[in-house]
Amino acid sequence: MFTSGMKESSAQQIELKGVTATGLQKLIEIVYTSSTTFDSHSDLFEAISCASHLQCLLALDYCEKSLLKRLTCRNFSHFIQMAKMYRLQNALKQIDLFIANNLAQIINQSGWHKRHKKHQLSHSQEDPDRDRDQDQDAQLPPHTHSDIVGSANLTYHQMAKCLSNNELRMREIDLFVLAWQWIVNNNLAAPNASKALLNERVRISEHKYKRKICIIRSLMKNIRFGLINPSDLVKKVQSAHSLVLSDKCIRQMVLDALNYHLMGVTSHCQHFKIRSPVTSLMMIGGREITPNPNIHDSCYLLNSVLTETHSFKMRKSPLTSLPNNLSHMQCVLVNNVLYMIGGCLSQCAHGESAVSATYKYEPSLNKWTYVAQMVEKRAYFYACALHTHSKQWVYAFGGKNRDGSLCSIEKFSADNSKWSLCKSLPSTCYAHAGAVLNDTAYICGGYTDGQFSASLYSFSALSDQLEELAGMNVARGWHSVCAVADTLFVFGGCFLNAQAQSLQLAEPTNVAECYSVQTNQWSVLKPMVNLHKEASAVHINRSVYIFGGYNIAAKTGQKLVSRYDLESGEWHTAGQLAAGMTGVGCVVIDLPWYLVHKQEAKCVSSSSCLSHLADDVSDEDEEESTGTSSDEDEFSIYTNSESDSEEENCFKTSQRNSLTQNL
């Protein structure tokens, strides 16, 4: 305006319409000093209006930051109006995040104001001369302040958006209780009462009742009932309100969750998806050789490896325990549910203690559940998950038990929790390993026909056929395999010394090689820096980590963790475990945030909000006895229409005032 040749650049007087003197003063201070102070919300709102009107982005950005600093649990709704009016998109995102992080406090505060309002109403009916203009701030709960004013109630759209937020850090049972508390606060659900009593006090039309039921159903569809444990589903969810069981739609959601917990059958995937998941490295079971020889039942996390913030001595964080002490089992991840299959119950060289049990681990419940028995007991075998059309199966290949080596293949369906035999390997085999690429299983090596094998086979669940491919450069067993992109990586293990094959003496190998699916060719990689036999390999970020195993040369468990850099092709010693473990299971899995960040979970727990639900229901009954109407129009939950507060008045004033300024 002043430098682009417009007439205002030389005019002695300039008329600015639609801005206030205070707003313009604050704008000039920001432009010339990069700072200003806002004595009230009115100053801030007028500055935002002026900066938007004059399209001063620098000042608008400054005001946006000031607005977010003043955000509280009781003024957010008016700040949302201001942000929408002036298209402050970043502010809207931050307010949504603020609501999600303070959901429990916002809803509890709204419920407190509702009860306080009823309490005042009952007192005014008893004493008509009671002073209605007394200072209510003195009666606010301890966590509120006198300078926080405005509507503390969430609209339906805000509540629905919160409940659908995948990054919300709150337990699902607490979310359900908060959602139902919001429903009660907004008079959408009648109190639990006998049918006769309800018939006597019907005050709303059938049309309004149906609309309220639709709102409740819509909110309940955002609750992930599958993440709530069965005990809470029965004790807290079903008993929360009679509508939970009487409404067909809500009842079916709860039944689906109960059926999943009882039979493992899901019908709505979204209801079983973990909120704010934390990708974690989970280590399971294993056999310790020295200094305390035994089979472990521990499950612990090594998440510092994922973030590459670990020290040389890797610290583990306990998670849960296995149903039994196990080693040399197979861990298969299916839709973020972990299946643990077979394995050994005790130290044995020939699979004498092999088991057939299958367990599954539910991250949302943090516990193991028995699922089924395999047809045959297996240890030292390979298992994986494969798709066939719309169905997913778990396959187990070969292995060994007290009766000897196995050539059978069996598959497991989560739909009926049963194992069944299918194809067979060309010959008996154990100590082999494999990985999945493009929904095809690749199995290589192992001990077969009295010697270690270099063979590689592919197995497709769609065709149900085995195909022999190009063999490895080194015949081996007890090795580790990892799939990355279209390449198989094979690490370590052991082989039979050619000069002493008659003695069947196994020697460790540090040879690593990779297989290209596209060319059907093997390539030898740089030698490993540490020896690993009976270890686990996991692809993490840009590297492959190898954990545990048996060090044949030292005749002890391998404590050192090896890392292969996929970009440089170099080997590194990444760290050291507390104890050398062989036959340990490793898997990268998404866990609920509260299992990983336990200290934070204690701080944000909203268990204190549970008691308010009963209070709100009893308040409804009190309403009936005093004769006051609780049938507020349901449209109020969309608009936050309450009495004018300071922010609301300032907001309207800043839009209404249009002053002519002479410069």
Automatic annotation (TrEMBL):
Biased composition (Basic and acidic residues): 124-135
Biased composition (Polar residues): 651-663
Claim: Cytoplasm is one of the keywords in the record: no
Species in which this protein is naturally found: Brachionus plicatilis (Marine rotifer)
Segments of skewed composition (Acidic residues): 616-635
Signal sequence region: none
Domain of life: Eukaryota
Stretches for region Disordered: 114-144, 615-663
Name this protein carries in UniProt: Kelch 9
One Pfam family this sequence matches: Beta-prop_ATRN-LZTR1
Keyword Repeat among UniProt keywords: yes
Attractin/MKLN-like beta-propeller domain: residues covered: 320-551
Keywords: Kelch repeat, Repeat
InterPro entries membership: Beta-prop_ATRN-MKLN-like, BTB-kelch_protein, Kelch-typ_b-propeller, Kelch_1, SKP1/BTB/POZ_sf
